[in-house]
Write a structure and sequence with these properties.
mainly alpha; 2 domains; 4 helices; 63% helix; 0% strand
């Protein structure tokens, strides 16, 4: 397994809360808690829809950019109707 080390800065409060959580729930350390939390967030509870192709994503980005430049916005209701 190939791994990559990263550094994460936490506020004092978050650090102590993570340390307490790790200790309470049997994690060896904050690193183990962080790794599991990332896995859960990315793989288990992933709501990200990756079904768009690269071309479709570029088209959507272009549309958003042009809409912002022209200040041409539609309501959410109009957008949903157009997408049906």
């Amino acid at each position: 397994m190939n791994t990559k080390q990263i550094n994460v800065k936490l506020s004092k409060n978050l650090y102590f809360a993570a340390e307490s959580f790790a200790e309470t729930y049997g994690y060896r350390n904050i690193q183990e808690l962080t790794t599991e939390s990332l896995r859960e967030k990315i793989f288990e509870k992933n709501n990200f829809d990756d079904s768009f192709s690269e071309k479709e994503i570029n088209l959507i980005d272009s549309l958003i950019e042009k809409s912002i430049k022209k200040k041409n916005f539609a309501s959410e209701k109009d957008l949903m109707k157009a997408l049906e």
